Amino acid sequence: MLNHIHHAAIICSNYERSRHFYVELLGLPVIHESYRAERDSYKLDLQIGESQIELFSFPDPPARTNAPEAAGLRHLAFAVEDVDAAAHWLQNKGIEVEPVRIDPVTGRKYTFFKDPDGLPLELYGQ
Questions:
Q1: For residues 67 and 82, what is the distance between their CA atoms, to the nearest angstrom?
Q2: Is residue 106 part of a domain?
Q3: 55 and 1, same structural domain?
Q4: Which of 71, 72, 75, 80 has the most CB atoms in a 10 Å sphere around its CB?
Q5: Nearest-angstrom CA–CA distance, 22 and 32
């Protein structure tokens, strides 16, 4: 019954800063962008492969809990052909990337970086 993940939704604290990060730095194509005056909120739909990221802004959203093991969505993982090359690409854009590691179960490379609000994002080798 469930086919694939259609989208993941992210609420950001600063729309312009996050829009720049996801569109200009990560290069995700914009599908649709709208401003909802009644909610004082932007909604930006971004393409990532066959899935989407919905980027929302709301006035004064509560801060994300800082505990990495807190209940809830832990991180988003992006599949990449070459983790080392993708990590260098991010670093060349001024994005801090953790050292590349090896998944002990799959033997694949992976690493983490963060969006402007500290949301953990992962690069995972295919």
A1: 29
A2: yes
A3: yes
A4: 80
A5: 14
Q: What is the pLDDT of residues 2-38, one digit of tens each?
A: 788 899 999 999 999 999 999 999 999 999 999 999 9
Q: Do the domain assignments include residue 65?
A: no
Say if CB 108 and CB 102 are below 8 A apart: yes
The answer to whether 100 touches 90, Cβ cutoff 8 Å, is no
In a domain, 56, yes or no: yes
Amino acid at the residue 89: W
